Amino acid sequence: MPVTDVTTDAEALTMTLTADFTAPVERLWEVFTDPRQLERFWGPPGYPATFTSFDLTVGGHARYLMTGPKGEKYHATWEFLEIDGPHSLAVLDSFADENGNVREDMPTSRMTLAFEPTASGARLESVTRFTSAEALEQVVAMGMVEGSTMAINQLDRVLQGLRDYAAGKGTQTEILDDTHVRITRLIEGPIDLVWRAHQEPELLEKWMLGPDGWRMSVCEVDPSVGGRYRYEWEPIEGTEGERFGFDGETLLSEAPRRAVTTEHMTGTDYPSTLNDLNLEEEDGATLITLLIEYPDMQTRDMVLATGMTDGMETSYARLEGVLASV
Question: Model pTM?
Answer without folding.
Answer: 0.91
